[in-house]
Design goal:
Length: 520
Amino acid sequence: MATLLRSKLSNVATSVSNKSQAKMSGMFARMGFQAATDEEAVGFAHCDDLDMEHRQGLQMDILKPEGGEEGAEPPLEGDIHYQRDGTGPPPPVPKEGDACSELSGQGKPKITAWEAGWNVTNAIQGMFVLGLPYAILHGGYLGLFLIIFAAVVCCYTGKILIACLYEENEDGEIVRVRDSYVDIANACCAPRFPTLGGRIVNVAQIIELVMTCILYVVVSGNLMYNSFPNLPVSQKSWSIIATAVLLPCAFLKNLKAVSKFSLLCTLAHFVINILVIAYCLSRARDWAWDKVKFYIDVKKFPISIGIIVFSYTSQIFLPSLEGNMQNPKEFHCMMNWTHIAACILKGLFALVAYLTWADETKEVITDNLPSTIRAVVNIFLVAKALLSYPLPFFAAVEVLERSLFQDGNRAFFPNCYGGDGRLKSWGLTLRCALVVFTLLMAIYVPHFALLMGLTGSLTGAGLCFLLPSLFHLKLLWRKLLWHHVFFDVAIFVIGGICSVSGFIHSLEGLIEAFRTNAED
């Protein structure tokens, strides 16, 4: 009798423990989103977090009895764990205050619509708006129209992407059945290719992250070279110096130290934009309205399309953001006012800057400022670029490590971490190699506009235009009204044409630049 009683008590204790662990694991699976980060932190550093469970193939499965014999007792109630492919022991539950908990936002309260709007605004008002006046140089009034058009389309595709997260249940209620961009992509490719869509999204994500790192090195070298033209230091040398400063990023374990500078970087960027606009307004009498063209440069305008699209990329983190809002019903309103504000600010900034310098407008608009102002502004921008580099770099490393080295039985290579959780020497070497790769690209292709146009045409258009409209048609086509179908098809066709055209012209420009630099 005593033995039976002890057995029942043990089973009850195990059940309670497993229930508790299941709740904590479920919480870990639904990772949150940190508010008040800077534009690159929002757009890139959290990309890994919000898609982590689907990249790894993680799922909530019932543990099978050990040995798997027939007739074995079914698992106790609550014996559910967050694990890879439903096999193996569950991962440890993150403790309060540790790095994983910090990145996931576990235990943090829901964010308001204003906080969500701050995140979206930072994502689409980053330092890459400095290339927009160059887009007006080659596009004229059509470039201004595209700034407005891209804002409208990206706002719409953000909304339909969120609509793909929901489905109607048996009771006719609209419920959230998906959690991330990768989840939506996998649902569209199921059942024949259940992971193909997620892999495509992840590849696009990695390309965008690495290209963003390259852009930071390029812009750092460019700004320093134009700030101190009298020094016997070339732009390539400045890029090497910047990379030497960034090499410690290979040792990053979390973004706690870097995140402290996020708000400061964002405020500094807004101050820089205000300074540029103030200087332009001071020269309003000399504005060259006659230089704004109604025709376009056929060879270079497609590059401008990529630049404009890249400045609006935010779709990758929207599912996580909407899922962590206090009132998700306010998401549509939040998207409207953030994109309207971005459209107005970007349009005014690009037009005013172009009117000031007209045909002399450079790829990075701050290079047009007088030498006395340019040096101060550019130093602040370089500091911001160097502080922003670790965010996309860390996210890219996390995606690569988890998909290639830590994806359970599906990993392509051995685990790059030892049993004590320390990074192995060859894993550290690969991180350093990624930093060096960004340097080599920045040295051989030191063209900010071309790289930005290529990235926007390839991954920006895909993630913001093509995939959301395609997924919306695939998952919800039976419930769509005719005008929604028309919009989706039109966006897919127009986005595809712009993407292909911009990619081809940007690639041609990069190849020509690469050959020129190789000859030098």
